[in-house]
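Repro:
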Amino acid sequence: MPDNPTGYTDFVDLFDRRYRLQVLDRAITDLNVRFTVKRSLSAKVANTCEIDIYNLAADSRGALQGQRDVYVSLDAGYAAGASTIFRGDLAEAWSTRDGNEWITTVTSDDGGTKRKTKRIQKTYPAGANIPAMFESIATELGLGLGNLGHVAASAAFLSTGMRTAPAGYTASGSAIEQLERLARACGLTFSVQDGQLQFLAFNAATADAPIALNPATGLVDSPEMGKDKSVKAKALMVPGLWPGRRVELKSRHVTGLYRVDTTAHKGELDGADWGVELELSAIKGG
């Protein structure tokens, strides 16, 4: 493999698969697992994960059965580098027997069910500042503040250019919709990644260094160009590919700077799958 291209991050040797799954206080690293993780920049659609664990010990199968709302974390990649591809709450866990094998299935989402039902009724006084309002609604939703401090500190209402609400502000109804409404009024979008808020300016990406994605660094097959300069691409389990991240895509037919809009990580330790399907959007000027 070539050396790390200057200016790009998360370049690793794409050999020797590795993963780490944690559910409750149990860490699993050496059993065969099969998983699908779907993530996006949508504020209203939760990131999801489904994992099949092969031949988990009987006491661990019993401990997981019937559990709800406990911590689930999945890292995946290679011996030279891996990254967290999912964090969330356990939704369901059950085990079935297939011949001589036990298969334990774990499903999880990133707090989406709770967000759908949470409602808010708050009136903020005149002069209330934007970061405080964001933090208040996020707290109601039980979300981590993520990059709120960095982004909201300079956020202003598009209509007035001001960083405060001079006549006050009322948030009433679905909490997730009210958070989205406030973000939109400030020229921002947001999503929930690993239980944390991720704010972005419209059509913008995170400030992280872009990942070089080409046939030498894990790009698989030929990217497909769609409408509005969108692109569908496939890659090996390259660390750091999450919604909002920039990638410098270089292929025979498609080249440019793109933002990752959705990811679908699919893997089986002892199987053929070990990669990610990406939906990308062009970054202005890229």
